[in-house]
């Protein structure tokens, strides 16, 4: 083993803000207004995010998951509707439609970007389909121009799961604004993570924003307590977290840039191994984000063991497609297959990626991967598994 150990998750997520966080806990607790949710700081955070994105509205809420559910409801998704989602991704993609009584319809993914394949999604559209929910995955945005065209062609609503892609831009349009609405998650490990639960719905449609605002606080309009206009949720945003996020916002651009620099360095060091049982994310910066760096390895378990032996902690997600979970299998057609999602789930390995990684740690991680590939008895090509 060379060098230090490299943990997968940053062990010091908020260390640099320690003093400020302590001060803000005190300031919030002793504020004469005694306002702990949906106050002036939440509003200020929403306005700053809306300005920086060029969005009509940003609605801070309790989590990315509840943001997805509320945005789907605001888009008119109702019980019995079908919502096309990727077969590979995180649970809320399936559970958000189900929370509304709608049915998730799983579409296969692109073999390289691992995001929902527009052609496969189109093949699954039926007269009951109401909405499409492409999701950006790890470091690569979904093919949003094609999803926008697909939604128009079939008269469908388009919600963009941009929970992992805050700060990413595709052809000049930020992640979150390609869809009629998008969501961000601020849970600790996300690119604008914070010490707790929270998220936001972003939209260029003020009317959608108004509906989500009503939904997040029991159907009450702001300044109109105990008047419930619609059945809503408790998905409110903490004032303490809003203060912390306002403090962290000016540093976000630098942290995102550091993440992207690490993505590019991994790409430079690992791309030459292509065709030897390893596939890396596509090159370039457009439509890319620095959330998680995921490679596809034909010999995944051996690679995981080899990385650990070198002091590098990898992480395997997602180990199985959504319709292969007990929770969601009942909603998938019997006998259906998602060959590319299944193949990816069997090969995905994610490498450490966070702003606090040193250049030396990045080199150490890449060297451990390279050493594994070069020593692997399987190194002589299995091109059928690695070319798109
Ligand atoms: C994290 C995540 C969510 C959910 O966000 P939470 O804030 O954890 O509820 C939704 N979709 C994707 C793709 C995510 O990565």
Describe this structure in words.
- The protein has 12 helices and 12 strands.
- It is an alpha/beta fold and 388 residues long.
- 48% of the residues are buried.
- Bound molecules: pyridoxal-5'-phosphate.
- This is DegT/DnrJ/EryC1/StrS family aminotransferase.
Q: Number of DSSP helices?
A: 12
Bound molecules: pyridoxal-5'-phosphate
Uncertain segments: 383-388
Share in β-strands:
5-15%
Give the tally of structural domains. Answer: 2
CATH superfamily of the largest domain: Type I PLP-dependent aspartate aminotransferase-like (Major domain)
CA-atom Rg in angstroms: 21 Å
Specify the CATH class of the largest domain: Alpha Beta
**Architecture (CATH level 2) name of the largest domain:** 3-Layer(aba) Sandwich
Largest sheet: 7 strands, mixed
**What is the H/E order?**
HHEHEHEHEHEEEEEHHEEHHEHH
Notable features of this structure?
disordered C terminus; alpha/beta; three-stranded antiparallel β-sheet; seven-stranded mixed β-sheet; Aspartate Aminotransferase, domain 2; 38% helix; binds pyridoxal-5'-phosphate
Short description:
With 388 residues, the protein is α/β, with parallel strands linked by helices. The chain has 12 helices and 12 strands. α3 crosses α4.
Topology:
Blueprint: H1 18-30, H2 40-53, E1 57-61, H3 64-74, E2 82-86, H4 92-99, E3 103-107, H5 118-123, E4 129-132, H6 144-154, E5 157-160, E6 169-170, E7 173-174, E8 181-185, E9 199-203, H7 206-216, H8 239-270, E10 278-279, E11 293-297, H9 300-309, H10 339-347, E12 348-351, H11 359-375, H12 383-386
Parallel strand pairs: 2-3, 2-4, 4-5, 5-8
Antiparallel strand pairs: 1-9, 6-7, 8-9, 10-11, 11-12
